[in-house]
Amino acid sequence: MQFDQDLQSIQEMRDAVKRAKEAQLTYMSYSQEQVDEIVKRVAQAAYSKSLELAQMAVEETGMGIVEHKKIKNEVGSMAVFESIKDEKTVGIILEDRVKKITEVAYPYGVVAGIIPTTNPTSTAIFKALISLKTRNAIVVSPHPRAVKCTVEALKICQDAAVQAGAPDGLIGWISKPSMAASNELMKHRDVNVILATGGGALVRAAYSSGKPAYGVGPGNVPCYIEKSANVSKAVSMIVDSKSFDNGTICATEQALVVDRNIQQMVIRELKNNGAYMLNAKEKALVEKVITLTHGHLNPAIVGQTAIKIAEMAGVHVPAETRVLIAEESRVGKDVPFSIEKLSPVFALYTAEHYQEAKEYCLKLLNLGGRGHSLSLHTNDDAVAKEFVLEMPVSRLMVNTLSSIGAVGATTGLMPSLTLGCGSFGGNITSDNVTARHLINIKRMAYGIKEVSIPKPSASTKKSAGDKQDIEHIVDQVLKQVAPKGEVDAKVIAEMVNQVIQKYKNN
């Protein structure tokens, strides 16, 4: 019964959190050197299994390409390690002798990690590493369609960590995941922070859990090929990026926007790089496969090849086809080619002028990718600066593959499998999430400025004196009029106060 499955899942989650909390309390006493050695050994172990984990992920989920998932596993392990290995995350991390401020790092405690089906092993490795680096424990809820490969990745990390001296239980997981268990994990009293990567509903649940949360929104990445771009080079990178792991990275280009005067050149280069241009009839058939209901992506096409998607739609394409492209002019939830597709399927928008190109990009972002990413190919630095100033995105990739550039593989951005969308996308951060997001910092500050506290003014003294005068007069009146205390003191006080007010007014 499903009910029994939920109960088992919830109990397994509770047991994992209990073990993680106990292990984390022990881990708190570890030095920076001990932590760094554990993180290094875990990264190396995961890296060495990159291919096997990639094969497991493709076999279990039916999504993506083994060789590409291997690269993502390598980024999630050693590239992430190289980016965080020198960061101080234990004890005193900064001493400012001029300002006399000392900063001390301390962990959150237990991290709840939610893992997507599109990047199951690489994201699991990445979240385990940044948790270990910051002396946190982590309990992971895998996607139900990617349980085996996610748990295997976590076991590799856990075994390597224990062999390097980490307490057992520091990395935990739910082997029978359910939505009920995921929701309760995020609300568990012993969970201190959430790292949520997944669909919009899951991210909203993370932010409404009452816990600190790093949730990341969807990406509907526009890719603008501006007239000054090197079209041949740009198109080659775009097709490579769009077909990388069959489009499962959220930063992958979703729609092309091109200037009218280079449109034909772009189309020619797209065809030269394995793109298939759908005619009007074929476009209509593919639209029915992209969305089965209004505005909702058909999960069956996610991570599939262009050829398979074409077959699903009843469209015959050449064997060398890498991406499917249809010309489009509208943007909206009722326009299947304009939404985030997580597959090698493109919309192609032709802009009559620069301003219209910007408008297309903005409409696409507003449809479902605000705050995430935008891809730009141009040789005009002024255009790039204008885009980064005006577009509501957290990262702008220029003249590179957007999919892997956003995660730090081809750019100087921080290697990460969790890309924040900032306030544009309703997220708490616009950063590529990494170890620094999983530590708190307490500060010790010495006094460095002399301050002269002003004495009370004459009016303040007079006010205080008036109060004392009233109390003294009331006391004297009571002693003379009613030595035994029969008279109401409040009445006398009010009478005296009225007399004093009249005296002041005169």
UniProtKB/TrEMBL annotation:
Key word Amino-acid biosynthesis present: no
Parts forming coiled coils: none
Top-level taxon in the UniProt lineage: Bacteria
Aldehyde dehydrogenase domain segment(s): 11-272
Keywords annotated in UniProt: Oxidoreductase
UniProt cross-references to NCBIfam families, sorted A to Z: EutH_ACDH
Protein name per the record: Aldehyde-alcohol dehydrogenase
Species the sequence originates in: Neobacillus rhizosphaerae
Gene this protein is translated from: adhE_1
